[in-house]
Every structure is written in C-alpha cells, then in structure tokens.
Amino acid sequence: MNGRVDRLTFLGTGDAMGVPRVYCECEVCEEARSGGMNRRLRSSVLVEGIEGDFLLDCGPDWRTQMEMINRRADITDVIVTHAHFDHIGGLPEWADACRWQQLKGRLFAPQEVLDAISKQFPWINSYIEFIANDQGMELNGWSITPWKVHHGHNGYSYAYRFEKNDFAWVYCSDAIGLDEEQKKPLHMLDLLILGTSFVREEAEYHTRSVYDMYEAAELIDEVVPSETIYTHMSHHVDLREDLNLAASVSIARTGMTVDLGNYSSLLSE
C-alpha cells in the first residue's frame, strides 16, 4: 500500500454463525440474504503497511474474504486470537494455498492456542511455521502483546495490543466480564476494536460469552479509548436501526477501512 500509515480493513464482522444464519428467516437475516448491510462474514481483519501485511484470525470465510479483496493468498502472516472454529476454520485452505505457491506461512499465537490448532489440523504445520507469541512479538514495526481474557461460557480467548509510532490499538473480539488485570491493556488507547454480539443479550449471564453493547458502553466509560469500533455481531444486531451509540463509537462493516496512525478516518468502502 502507498502512504505512511498502516491501514486496517474489516474482512468479517460477524459472530460464530455469521449473518445470515442459513436456517433463520428473521428480518436481519432476510435483509442480509438479499445483499443488504447486515450481511456479515466471520470476524477477521487485515492490517496492511509498508513493512508488510498480516491477518488477525483466519475463519471459515477466509477464501471468500480473499476473493473479496482480490488477494491471491499472498498474505503469509496470520495472528490468531483463539482456537474456536470461527477464528481458525480457514487455516487448512490457507496452508494449502501456501503449499501450492511454495510459500511458508507463519502462524502466531500463544502456545496453548497453537497446541489446540495442531490437534485439530495435525498436518498443516508441514506448510506453516507455528510461532508462539506468549511473551509478545514484533511484526512489521508493530510491538504486539497478547493477553488472556475471559470468554465466558466458551472458556478463554486472547486479546492483542498493538503499538507503533505513539499509536496504540487493541483487538478484542471475544470477551466478557474482564477483571481488573485484564482491563489494564485497554487503557490509553487510540482505538479499541471490541466484540459485541448483541445490542442487549437476554440470556442468563453464565451461558454467555461476548459483551453486549450496553456492557461494552460501561467498559468504554471505564477505560476511555479515543475511538471504539464494535465487531463480532450476531443476527440480533440490525445496522438499519439507530443503536444509540456514543459519539466515539461506531460499527464495523464489511470492507470498512481505518487508518492506524493519526486516527482521523473511518472510511466505508
């Protein structure tokens, strides 16, 4: 890419099932099915910069997402948040693409996540180098720190804090009920990307796994990022409605790009 500031593109903004859900005929799924604004692939972002590009998560919609942005699997670095299928389901296809192109992909994640991926896809490390990042990592000029976060009923996930040239942002797609220690890396942020599967989730708390938008607003009031973008949304979120968000909060949409520098642009494509 041209320019001095790295750029983030939302390739997928949906929850584990995506939108539309194949079995569902709710208004949101029907609108999404017709190609509307609520159509959401599984959550993933692409970060592009002068020093190189990388993906955050590689879910089952990876192939569709690569076709969408006209990239022929030339992205050889992937960072993974956790080993749930909606975040790793595309890894076998990515590994096969690396094999065909005679490239060696690099997969970065904490060791326990890599171990879980190896059990699910025992062959892919023939074509992908597994690199543990428990102690942090440097990639394309970014200083990157993972930390473990509560994923509610679904166990755990990892969030990532990225820092470069006095710009700090966090990707936290799957979390709920963070404790004080887990909230510390959320302070002093230029940008927080946070998973919010519902506007208001009515299910019993012990059965849940991701913040809703009301709970997210309370978290934002506490950690005070300059800007926040919600992602990882289910079919219970209708982007046609007024979601009553704070001025510093917006909703991720497929193809939306964000400058990761002097944070001044939220550009929908």
Automatic annotation (TrEMBL):
Report the catalytic activity: 3',5'-cyclic UMP + H2O = UMP + H(+); 3',5'-cyclic CMP + H2O = CMP + H(+)
Domain of life from the UniProt record: Bacteria
Looking up InterPro entries in the UniProt record yields:
Metallo-B-lactamas, RibonucZ/Hydroxyglut_hydro
Q: Where is the Metallo-beta-lactamase domain?
A: 41-227
Q: What does this protein do?
A: Counteracts the endogenous Pycsar antiviral defense system. Phosphodiesterase that enables metal-dependent hydrolysis of host cyclic nucleotide Pycsar defense signals such as cCMP and cUMP.
Protein's name in the database:
MBL fold metallo-hydrolase
